[in-house]
Write the structure tokens for this entry.
Amino acid sequence: MQNGLNVEKDLYDALMRLGKGPANIISTALYIQSNLVSPNVVEHGSVGRTSIGLYRRGDYTTMDYSPQEIEILEDLRDILLMGGTTLTVVPEIQRVKFQKNILNVAMSSLPT
């Protein structure tokens, strides 16, 4: 899982060049608490949250998944939930990632 905006683009383009149909990439927004408690010591919080959804290049308005897409998302959701992840499947992941990164910008400027 990788945070960041539009980090899926190159992978999506490479998969599409293979010519084997639509590329299904599960994208994520990860919320992880961490604090610098002393020089070179980072404490990770026990509270974290993950949102997942399918990446749709250039499409920020589709809010419904096909039955096949739901199956793909539910397979990963079930695996992560069994491991104890707090998880939400969202209808449009790029909006969630943008919102999360806006929060990062605001929060990271405070300690800086």
User: Anything to note?
Assistant: The radius of gyration is 16 Å. The longest strand covers residues 41-54. The beta strands are 26-38, 41-54, 87-89.
